[in-house]
Every structure is written in C-alpha cells, then in structure tokens.
Amino acid sequence: MKKIVSFIICISVILSTFVYATAVDSVDARLYNVYGNGMLFQQNEDAVLAGTGNAGDEIKCSLKNKLGSVVAEALSKVDNNGLFKISFKAPAGSYEEYTITMESDGQVFDVLENIVFGELWLSGGQSNMQIELQWSVTGKQMLADGTRGSKNVRYFYSAPSPEYNGDTYNLPYYPQTEIPGCCWFDGTDDRIFNISATGYFFAEKLQKELDMPVGLLSGSLGGSSITAWIPRSAIDGNRQVINDLGTSYYSKKEWKEDGSISIMNACSGMYNKKIAPLGNFRPAGMIWYQGESDSGWEHGKYSRLFDVLQDSYSDLFDYDGVLPVVFTSLCDFSFGDIDGFKRMSSEFADMQKSRPESRSIISVSDIPLTYYIETQACHPADKKPVGERMAYAAQGLVYGEKNCVSAPNLKSYEIKDNSVYLTYNYCGDTLKAKGERIYGFTICGKDGVYVPADAEIVSNDTVRVYSENIEKPKAVMYANGLITSRCNLYAYKDGEYVWPVLPTITDWSYIDNIWTDFGWTDCDTPEIWREESLTIAGNYEIWEGNGADVSVTSESAFKGNGGLKITGNNSFSVSPITKYVNENNEENIFLEFNQNWQNYKKMSVMVRNDGENDIVISNVKIIKDNGKWVAPVVDGTKSTSATIPADGEWHEIVFNMNTLYFSGKRLPAAASRTYLTDVSDVEFCFDGENARLSMDEISFETSGMSSPIIKLMSYDPVSLLFNLVSTIAGFFSMLANK
Q1: Model confidence pLDDT, tens digit, residues 582-622
Q2: Are 710 and 723 in contact, with CB atoms under 8 Å apart?
C-alpha cells in the first residue's frame, strides 16, 4: 500500500512540474494598453489593433453589433518577435455601439465593449493646451453645478509626462508602444475635469456640429518646446533639423534615460512617450497650441520644425496626404522679449499661408485675459472660445463646411497715394471693425521707424492704412505690440464677428523700430491690459494727473471714441502711466512703452480750452529713467510754451524734438539726440486758473534717420570730423548741465 501511495505522489509531482513548465513557456496574448472600453476609432479607415502574443499564434478580431452579429472580421499571426497587428475596415460613423472580440488560437483573450466609430482628433502642445478643464472658467462652473459632457465624445487621457522606468522625468530613447496609466472615458465621466480644457471644448463643439461621435487623443505638456515632439526618424540624417534643434539635439551616445535631460525640449523625448504609442490610430487631424517656449527663436526656425512635425505625424498615422492641423496664435504676454513676440506672432500667420490646404490658424487676441493664480497670467482661463474656434476651423478645413477656414491673414499689399492697401484672405462676408475706429495699425517710411496709423475698410477684404506724418510709406504692421487685445479688425460672417485679423508685417526688411505703445497716444480708453510677468497682470489706468483731475470722455474726443478731460488750477500736469511696482516693491517701466525716441523729430497734440481763461502749456517734459528731463520747443518758435485760447476750438500744438532745452539751456543738436534715449515718461505741464481742457491724439513724426546722429563707425573724413565735433559738443553740454 505504501508503494502505491509513493508512486501516486511521484506521478503527481512529475505532472505538476510539467504543467508548471508549460505555463511558464506560455505567453498570453494581449492588446497594448492604449486600447480600452469606450474608445473611438476613425470611421471609414482601417481600425488597427496591436499587441503581443506567442510567435506563430493566429490572432482573430471580430467586430459585433448590439445584436451580436459579426460586422467585420480579420485574421493575423504573431510574428517572431512576439508582436501582432490586425485591422479591419471601420464602418461609417454613427451612435451605434459595438463590441470587439480578440482571440488567440481560438481562445478569447480580450473583449472591448462600448466601441464607437466617428471622427478622431489628436491634441498637442504645451501649457495652454494642457490646462485642465477644472481650471477653465466654464469648467469651474461645471464642477459647481454638476454639469458634465456628452456620452458621444470619447477621450483618451494620458498623464502630462507619464512614467518611464519608474520616474516621470525619465525619457526613452526609443519610441514606446504603451503609456502607463492611460485610459478611455466619455464626456459623462468625472475624469473629464483632468483633460485639456481646449480639447474638451473643441471635441464637444465638433460633435454637435457634425452630429457624429468624436474622439480626442491627448498629447501635451506644459512648458514643452516643439523639439520634444518631433520623432528621431525625422531628425537623424537631416543636417538642417539638427542645426535647428541646437542644444535640444542628443545623439544616441549622448542620450541618458536617468532624468538628467530635459523632458521639455530633448529631441523626440515626449514624442517617444506620448505620441508614438498612438501610431496605430488614424486621426482625421490635430489641434495644436504651442509656441510660447520657442518665441525667442530667429525668424523661420519654428516654421521649419513645424513642417517636420506635421510631415512626420502624417507618416506615423499613415495619413493619405498631409495631416490637417488647426493651431492657434499666442495669447497676449511678454514671451521672452518684444522682438521674440513680434517674430512669433507674424511667423504663425505666415505658417498657415505656406500650407493653406492642410493648415488653419485661429486668433485669440480678443479673448478675455482673465486667469486664476493657479494657472498664472500667461494662461487665460477662458478656453471655451479657443476650443470652439478650433472646431469651427476644422469644419471648414477638413469637413467642407462653408466656414472661415482660417483667421484673416495678409494676401497682398500695394503702396499708392501715400497709403498702403492691405488685402486679406479668409474675411468671411467682409472685414469689419468692432467700433468706429480701427486700432492696431502702425506705418513707417524709409527710415523704418513705425508710428501709429489710421485705417479704413475700403472693400470687403481690403484696408487702407495711412498717417498724415508719413508721406511715402514703406511698410505696415498690425497687432505687433506685446498687448494686442485692443486690435479690433475681424472677419465677419453671417452676422457674427468670427475672429480677429492675424498679426501682419508687410515687409520683413522693416522690423527694427516697431511701435509697441497702444493706449496713451490716442486717449480713447481709460485702461489697458498689461502683462509684465506671470504674476503682474491686469487692467491698468493709462493717464494720471498731478494737481489735476483727468478722465476719458467721448465729449473730449477730437478723433475716435474718447479724449482726456482735464480740470486743474494754477500749475498742473498730466502724464501717461508708464511704470508699475513689482512683487519686490521695485519700480519698473512697462515693457511696451517705447523708450527710444531718437528717431522722432516732432510730437503734436490736439488741445481745446473749454474754460473762460487762456491756458498756457508751459512745456512738455520728456523724462529719462535717471529722472532728468528735457523740453522740446514749440515748432517755429524758440519757446517751450504756447497759449491755448479760451475759444472752445481745437488747436494743434507741434513740438520740435530737434531743439531741446535742459535746465533752461538749449542743447546742441548732437546732445539733443543723446537725451532722447532711455525715456521713461512724458509730462504735459499747464498753467492757468480754473482750467477746463480737452486733450487728444498725440502723434509723432519721424526724423528720416534710422540711427542716432552720432555715428562713430563712419570712417570717411567728413563723417569723422562731424562726429568728432558733435561728440565734443554733446560731451561739454552734458558736463555743463550736470
């Protein structure tokens, strides 16, 4: 009996060992984790599923409708590397829900339920795309009142920077097939508050307009450069791309997967983490909100890299042609510096023109610049208009709707009759200004120095731009200040203002002396939005009085919507507010205030005396940042003052900035120019009893020179002698006036 028991135990051990060995050798088939219940596939395209399994095993995929009937089937085999890919032709989009059954050698290994087919899009970019729904104005309200989205919108979520080898800061050198922690859910799920606010409003709007299920794949990271989102397959071997990447380029030898290279800009890093795993999907297009991190680049670099990104994504997603991209201009903020913002704003407009068949750009300069301290000032919290404008653009670009495909950008221009005529694309029914006056245009002559310009719409797509102070204009800019929210020219269609005209530069050979000041010279509004840092932002008053009350009223306007109403007594003054106090209690000059006045030869102002007594404008103080000031003479006189008669009529007072007085003494011409650098403020000073004044329309006339009078780098004898005399005269003048 004992022998029989021992035999049975021995056989059991042998069998269990055999079974264990078989189980160890077996590799169960599975799908990559980017697939899941509730997902959406692009309609009428190949629906591709991929994963791992045992080499040689047969993979079968069955698409079943609600009745359990098989709608589509496909067969494939696991290759020698243990990988499989299988696909079937997706049905037309509808609200019908399907089930996908996956089998390996006849055994079911996965069932995907609640699957729909419709329009699939990819969202990409940096923080303004990543900002979550819960931080948006509308999202906060949705949280408060319990509102959720549509069941017919399906969202694929992945963390901003998913883990790799146990850390979110590690970057893989090779493209990945899975994204840790990713998931699918529909718009009724509470998890929607963690997804992109811009993406949410885009998808919800597009779903309603198309009456079709819409899906959105996430792919953004706050602060990331475009360089992080370009695949290595488009980089290595391309010398131009490698040069453009600069320090963002890492060879295989230089690459480290230990978190020591930046997730924000290392070439291909975020692409490998978040985009490559989505390569088996077939999106209809991409929405893109990025560029703030790259705004300091030289002109043309971003455009070249954007071309590479768009082409490489077209290849990744096996798109027939070029993958459509709807992207947005940047919100008002001092990204880097004035020149950087100028280049980026206009380069975005040019990028659409280079590929109009596959690109649409929307403008956002008019969207309210409200923000929460958690999101900071460079992240406007109202993302609904951004997402919905992207959806509107997508309808025109991809789905053939008769919408404005893109925000208006410059088509052509013509200079004639001392004016510049600008013709725009994508104007809808017509161009139209919000308000009677068009703001935001500047113009220059051959000196390349821009001054504020007047503008009028002369046809549905054409604007005439001019200035009385520029006789032979050479170039025009539009919306190229740091703050462009006052710019008010729009595409107008079907009785609605669709979106603003994009920043414009007619001639890139004239970009050195732009006019960035908006607000104080036209006196039309009491406040203007300013953003000097991530924490200092808001509406600031434009004018202040010293011994005087000053306000903006329509009754005091010579031109436009308003002018300054000034009341004072005896000696008083008014001046634009050019400074702010930062968080360290330090006084700084607003970035958009033009501090270099060397190229202006005249300044004029319109004034009206509404009182009973004559008033004297005693001088206009041009104040340097060291506190010293000079006063220009009234043109045609030797005095810095002029009398404003009490006649209730408008009078133009012109000041000659070629002739300046300092401490009561007239400066030599050469020295005058040195005093027009580092301007920090300007003060209009008056004398008179019971004064009631109106003041409006401060304008400048340029000198015709593109650089200061003193040119130390000129080497011909006449120039050397002139420069020497001018320098000595200026030096002794400044010594005498210290």
Answers
A1: 888 999 998 888 899 999 999 999 999 999 999 999 999 99
A2: yes
Q: According to the model, what pLDDT value does residue 704 have?
A: 61
Cβ neighbours of residue 110 closer than 8 Å, sequence gap 6 or more: 29, 30, 31, 101, 102
Q: Render pLDDT for 286-335 as a digit per residue (tens, 0 to 9).
A: 999 999 899 888 889 999 999 999 999 999 999 999 999 999 998 877 66
Residues of the chain with pLDDT under 50: 1-25, 705-727, 729-738
Q: Where in the chain is the domain with CATH 3.40.50.1110?
A: 127-397
CA distance 310 to 352: 12
Domain 536-709 architecture = Sandwich (2.60)
Please say whether the beta carbons of 398 and 284 come within 8 A: yes
Q: Which residue has the tokens 């029914």?
A: 429
Residue range(s) occupied by CATH 2.60.40 in the chain: 1-34+43-66+81-117
Provide CB contacts within 8 A for 539, sequence distance 6+.
Answer: 527, 528, 529, 530
pLDDT of residue 376: 79
The tokens describing 298, both together, are 């030289």
Polymer length in residues for the chain? 738
Q: Quick one: how many helices (H) and strands (E) in the chain?
A: 11, 38
DSSP H/E element including 210: helix 197-210
**How many angstroms separate the CA atoms of 188 and 192, rounded?**
8
Threshold 0.85, pTM exceeds: yes
CATH class of 1-34+43-66+81-117: mainly beta
Domain 127-397 has CATH 3.40.50.1110: yes
